[in-house]
Write a structure and sequence with these properties.
269 residues, alpha/beta, globular
Length: 269
């Protein structure tokens, strides 16, 4: 179907880009992205994906808006305190773009429900802030052949990588196992500068848009790190997919999803 006059105006800055154009914008509007975590990373990602016109966006988070969230989780406002984050996020996303569809999951994702949820989407964004969730998301996406973006932030540092299961290195190819308990401080203990969430979360949204449209090169086979104090990005080439990996190798040791219980912040240095 042709664009309406309103769509042509709304998405005009995308449409004039030769890397996106009319066909690319149609792909965005017909695409779907699941954002796991409506916090620091998920907030900017959700807003930019809504603004871009991604046709169906899922957002999963079991938490409610707390005053300490507002320093970095820009999709929520003071008036949202006590409200489920997914509902607050949905309201903001639809206020930005009422033409999209937003599906909410006000629940913890576990080994029991994650596969049924992620299978409905073209691409997954991991915006969680703890290791158990990140290992679960990685393993589920690999087992379901679901492309996804991993990211983590702590203090003034952030990291990002994109995974195409069974084609590129996964999270376990880099970080093989859960860290020992209390080995790494949580964001609550160590702190995080609010704008860091905006930088890395926006890059996740960009990776999703590039995946949907086929524009440019995805951040696969590489880990992008950012040191805000030094204002330096650094790209690390990752080991080949599957070498010694317990989940994405040709003969994986892990064939069932595991619910880990040890909480820790998401960024390894």
């Amino acid at each position: 179907m042709p664009f309406t006059d309103e769509e042509l105006e709304r998405y005009s800055r995308h449409i004039i880009l030769k890397e996106i154009g009319v066909k690319g914008q149609k792909k965005i509007m017909n695409g779907s992205v699941l954002i796991i975590g409506a916090g620091g990373l998920g907030a900017p990602a959700a807003m930019y994906l809504a603004a871009a016109g991604v046709g169906r966006i899922g957002i999963a988070d079991a938490d409610v808006v707390d005053l300490s969230n507002l320093q970095r989780q820009v999709i929520h406002t003071t008036g949202d305190l006590g409200k489920p984050k997914v509902e607050s996020a949905k309201e903001t996303m639809l206020a930005i773009n009422p033409e999209i569809e937003v599906e909410t999951y006000h629940e913890f994702l576990t080994s029991k429900n994650i596969l049924d949820i992620i299978k409905k989407y073209d691409f997954v964004l991991d915006g969680t802030d703890n290791f158990p969730a990140k290992f679960l998301i990685n393993d589920a996406c690999v087992m379901a052949d679901k492309p996804f973006s991993h990211a983590g932030i702590l203090r003034f540092k952030g990291q990002l990588m994109t995974v195409i299961p069974h084609e590129t290195p996964c999270y376990r190819c880099v970080f093989h196992t859960m860290p020992p308990k209390d080995a790494i401080p949580s964001c609550k203990e160590a702190g995080v500068v609010g704008a860091m969430a905006g930088v890395i979360g926006s890059l996740q949204a960009l990776e999703a848009i590039k995946f949907l449209t086929g524009a440019g090169d995805l951040l696969t086979g590489k880990l992008l790190t950012f040191d805000a104090l030094k204002m330096k990005f650094h790209t690390i080439t990752l080991p080949p997919r599957g070498e010694g990996c317990s989940v994405c190798s040709d003969h994986p040791e892990i064939t069932e999803l595991i619910d880990y219980e040890q909480p820790a912040c998401d960024l390894r240095k």
